[in-house]
């Protein structure tokens, strides 16, 4: 098992090393610009990517906001379970995010879709809807890349297809974006 652990950690380091640093800078700039304009930032994902979405919204909303003169306006779309189950039941599970955006989103807002495969139908449909309605779109995806990555204005790829390693690296990306505000290193517009 020790060899397996060493190998796993070596592969995790490779996954982290695959993160495009310039793309993370671009993500921070998108968040900075949205904040400056008073725009909403939405995030979504499925499974562990939903947990990462929630974690990101919590960190940006609390810790990122504490470092700024005004709070971030951020919402994880997967945190409204009653609404998601109603949409999933009455329409389709692939509609659970874009149908919430209809109620909340406006042109100029930001959508951060998180999907290891890049092909989660609800994240893809939300990204399509967001693009059609003037939102800035970010896809944080794994080595499969997928349709969400093709659709987004900014794609940040973790070049690993292992769900655990990609999800861990996704959270690292999101933490870097938040901590850049907390530690005051986001460049001015």
Please give a handful of descriptors for the protein shown.
189 residues; alpha/beta; Rossmann fold; 8 helices; 13% strand
How do the helices and strands follow one another from N- to C-terminus? HHEHEHHEHEHEH
The number of E-state strands comes to: 5
CATH topology: Rossmann fold
Mean pLDDT value: 97
Question: Radius of gyration, Cα only, in angstroms?
Answer: 16 Å
Low-pLDDT stretches: none
Counting DSSP H or I runs of 4 or more residues, the number of helices is 8
Domain module tally: 1
What strand order characterises the main sheet?
2-1-3-4-5
Distance between the ends: 49 Å
Helix fraction, binned, reads 55-70%
Mind telling me the CATH superfamily name?
Glucose-6-phosphate isomerase like protein, domain 1
CATH class: Alpha Beta
Judged by helices, strands and strand pairing, the structural class is: alpha/beta
For the sheet with most strands, the description reads: 5 strands, parallel
The coarse silhouette is globular
CATH architecture: 3-Layer(aba) Sandwich
Task: Quote the beta fraction.
Answer: 5-15%
